[in-house]
Specification:
single chain, 434 Repressor (Amino-terminal Domain), 3 domains, about 0% strand
Length: about 400
């Protein structure tokens, strides 16, 4: 296929330049018959001839072979959506396609990012995905994901080095330096979005020291006042809207960070009810506000379940059942109806950044999220040994039906 594509390009460029096959042959020091064979796709020139041919037509080698080393953001995103759909239908073909795309677009950061993220999402579902380190198909997926993430960082580092080298004299003095700086900044932004995923995949592969080395330099040394200072500057300029958007954005992201940290603390203190109590209290306080709770709808159910399981493990049956009932309440209320009223006062300036009922696909995505959460906790209730002593308890049976949604179906 590439040979035929080269043949078509060669003939096209020759005609575009108004040259005959004889003239091309004379310039390259070959026979007309050789040029004719190249244009028919019967053979390819020697590797040493390729740069001379490109120079003759004032094109690149990529142009000669019709090779596009980059995809636009829109094209890369479209491919990612197609890849996710293909993984659902035919994982083997989707994985092979990822490998082929990686080879073809080994210098396109956005394609590499989407390949890595697609594989990252698939690893836990593949054969060997729950082992540590992962094995089998899961290991193959993880290895390719890491290769893509590492290549992204290499490309970003080269872009930075290129900007320093060429920009030292020309940065700010011409469009080339500006474009180089913008490109380096864009690459760095994409790479930053993949760091957490790369660290997790490295951990899955048993490469724990590499995961730690990747993340430790990114730990903040303390709180950042950047958003607050920027907002004050906007206010002094009379740009109150920009100021409030900046602060709301910082608040939302800080709350998400806090919620993730609380989730980690719950995991670290599981089955220790006394240690979990202060964490539960903080989460309850945060989630008392609907706007805050909507940033992570699964947080409150997960914390309440962990607390109930810890109480059950400690033999506190009555308190465990009460806590499990509160968990079921939180599960029923998770995701709400997607209305924006709860966010109106706190996050009204950043509604475009938040997932809500204003978006057309919200009802469908909400239904899928709730169904997945119910399935997850149904399996946990059935498998978690802390509930073994309560299997015949009518209360547990009723709560299990409520968690799975069976009680709603029976009522209907």
């Amino acid at each position: 296929m590439e040979q035929l594509q080269f043949a078509e390009r060669l003939a096209h460029e020759r005609r575009r330049c108004g040259l005959t096959q004889d003239q091309v042959a004379a310039h390259l020091g070959v026979t007309k018959a050789a040029v004719s064979k190249w244009e028919r796709g019967a053979s390819l020139p020697d590797m040493a001839q390729m740069p001379k041919i490109a120079s003759l037509f004032a094109v690149t080698l990529d142009d000669l072979f019709g090779y596009e080393p980059q995809l636009s953001s829109a094209e890369a995103t479209a491919w990612y959506v197609e890849a996710l759909a293909q993984f659902a239908d035919d994982p083997a073909t989707a994985f092979r396609c990822c490998g082929e795309m990686a080879v073809r677009y080994w210098s396109c950061v956005e394609v590499l990012f989407y390949i890595g993220m697609a594989l990252y999402g698939q690893v836990p579902q593949m054969t060997g995905g729950t082992d540590r380190p992962v094995r089998g198909d899961a290991a193959d997926y993880a290895e390719l994901a890491v290769r893509c993430f590492e290549r992204m960082r290499t490309l970003a580092r080269r872009a930075e080095e290129g900007r320093v080298t060429t920009g030292g004299a020309s940065e700010g003095a011409g469009s080339e330096g500006v474009r180089a700086k913008e490109a380096a900044t864009s690459l760095r932004s994409v790479v930053q979005r993949s760091v957490e995923a790369e660290a997790v995949v490295l951990q899955w592969l048993g490469r724990v020291s590499e995961a730690v080395a990747l993340l430790e330099p990114l730990l903040p040394d303390g709180p950042s006042l950047v958003s607050t200072v920027l907002a004050s500057i906007y206010q002094e300029q009379g740009e109150d809207g920009h100021a409030e958007r900046t602060l709301q954005r910082a608040l939302a992201f800080s709350l998400v960070d806090a919620q993730c940290a609380l989730t980690g603390l719950v995991a670290a203190r599981q089955y220790d009810a006394a240690a979990l109590e202060p964490v539960v209290q903080v989460v309850e306080s945060l989630c008392a506000d609907d706007a805050v709770a909507s940033l992570n709808p699964s947080l409150l159910p997960s914390v309440r379940y962990a607390y109930a399981a810890a109480l059950a493990s400690g033999g506190e049956r009555e308190r465990a059942m009460e806590a499990l009932g509160r968990f079921a309440d939180a599960l029923d209320a998770s995701w709400g109806d997607g209305s924006v009223e709860s966010r109106a006062s706190l996050f009204d300036k950043i509604s475009d950044l938040l997932w809500s009922g204003e978006q057309a696909d919200y009802p469908e995505q909400r239904a899928k999220a709730v169904a997945a959460l119910r399935q997850q906790y149904s399996l946990r209730l059935a498998a978690d040994p802390c509930w073994n002593d309560l299997r015949d308890d009518e209360g547990l049976v009723a709560l299990t039906a409520r968690v799975t949604g069976d009680d709603a179906r029976e009522g209907a």
